[in-house]
Write a structure and sequence with these properties.
This protein has 433 residues and is α+β, with helices and mostly antiparallel strands. The chain is built from twelve helices and five strands. Helix 4 runs parallel beside helix 6, helix 7 packs antiparallel against helix 8 and helix 10 packs antiparallel against helix 11.
Amino acid sequence: MTMLRDLSIYWSMLHILIVFILLFRPRFDRKKTVLITGICMGVLMLLNGGLLAVAGFEVLGNVFLITCTVPSLILFYVLSADRNFKFFFSFCLADTSCLWIMAVTNLLDYFLGGGQYMVMFVSRLIAFPLVEYLIWRYLRKPYLELQEGVQKGWGIFSGMTMLYYVLLAVTVQYPTNIVNRLEDIFQCVLILLLMLLNYATIFTSLYRQLLLYRKQQSERILLEQKNLLKAQLENQQRIRRMKHDMKGYSATLLGLLAEGKTKEALVYLKGVETEMDTLEGAFCANPYINAVFVQYSGKLEELGAEYTMNIQAGEAELPYMELCQILSNGLENACDALEKLEIEKREASVEMKYNRQYLIIQIKNRCREDLCVERGNIPTTDKAEPGHGFGLPTIQTAAGRIGGDMMCYTEEGNFVLEVMVSLAVLRERMKQI
């Protein structure tokens, strides 16, 4: 019957891997991640299976932290997009949850199955797929959203899960398997129950953070919409003033021409042209996107910044909600960064143009000298006030909704934000609207 025990161990190792894959955010694409994981974890499982066959269950139970946990920790650390407490929490959460199932099924087999491993095998055969279904159905999406949006507070949770992992591993396996230490079973059961309450507390706290994150995101979107509507209203008022002024200009020109004063009319016309140039201009034909540029060009002027806007897109129909989110958040971040610099160092540039089959948006601004951001990483905010720290994640989410990618990095004292969107995806999106 030891074959059932060994099969249940292989089954458990496989599903520890699956549970973690459901919870973590990979840095590579899905195909590459699955390939690397399959090769490395396949070799690791074979090595541990060989150790089980040669040395036996007790020896494997005493050294699995070194032979299985640590190598898989290193592998997934390399594959993970998060190199911080988020990763350690997800890793310990997956391992501890699966170890909890293994401990419970081990006790059930001892008390209900007489230690014949049939109950262990059947219960694990059912429990792991059931847990994975629940994770996929209810936990995965909000948990990934939480990882993306919440940057702080993961340290205490990862410390708790790591401590419980070590505590459970020691209680269940050291110095021998718990079923061989009947005097410690009551203590083990208490730890298993305490872990349930502990994880209930953790997930309650995480759920509240998720609700707070969603609320702050909604408030930010509403504020952006308010600013857009305000800019639109200002544009409409400016157009009305221009129409009113044009009547006066036309009357004056007609009067000068009627009197035969052609030279005076030309001089007056040049004066009108100069006055028109001083008005806030139109950057693109799309009124919503143009409103964003008008609003933030005014902010940049208030900051005394030197800026350029090279806008060669926006004439066609575009998903303006997402593009306005990208532009307003990117320009808001640029203004925040420039505000901290000396006036003579305040420089920014904005480009929005078509490049072959893509729409390219680039926002570049001077930043503090000690800021260093590598390509592929998203810096966290240094502001402690609530409502901050959502700009770049919001841009990334908005770009993703229209099939685009976001990248940010520092280069020669500048912070560079780049967004690239496929025109084919844009056209398909506009058909659905």
